[in-house]
Amino acid sequence: MSVRDWTYAIVVVSFALYVGIAIWAKAKTTKDFYVAGTDVSPLANGMATAADWMSAASFLGMAGIIAFAGYDGSVYLMGWTGGYVLLALLLAPYLRKFGKFTVPDFIGDRYYSQSARIVAVFCAIFVSFTYVAGQMRGVGIVFSRFLEVPVTTGVLIGMAIVFFYAVLGGMKGITYTQVAQYCVLIFAYLVPAIFISIMITGNPIPQLGFGGQVAGGEWLLDKLDGLHQELGFAAYTEGSKA
Hints:
By secondary structure, this protein is mostly helical. It has eleven helices and no strands. Helix 3 crosses helix 9 and helix 7 packs antiparallel against helix 8 (114-147). It starts with a helix and ends in a 6-residue tail after the last helix.
């Protein structure tokens, strides 16, 4: 088999797996469709969230901007990751607590305001459209390279596949599909990184060899000790309860 045949086979098998998982995890209730039935394990949820983060925007866009802008490009990466953390800590728990499926529904009930609900709807549409547009463009580029088709055709193929398993399986199908995608993405990340590291440094994990080059941490301990003294912890905690 030629390289092109192997590429076609891998792509077809991967998407057949995703569609099969969506059919297996087909949503049967409204709760399954919107929140995956709330019975997904923490490990599966974490893998699905990581796969969302390792999307076309990060796999292609972030890698490209860091390669183009150098260290300055990492600012976008940190901001994006920080946004995920804020979303997970400040919004997701309260959606579950209030029993709501969507952010506009939660905002409207939380603040007793139909106007706030409408504003949240427009914000959600704008943010989702912007994000999905970038994602679909990335999907089109990937398909155009692998299948040697125009980018527009690649976008249409990607949209059709995602539409199928999203509508059929809902959030439950998407979650378990993302778990499978996580395995593919983490493999695609680690294998090239390991081989490039071996080629350049002779070590699959070169970061482990940096320990001998890092300066000692005594200066940090001195700073912390000075802060401890300036705050007066020692003076305030001396003596006994008597």
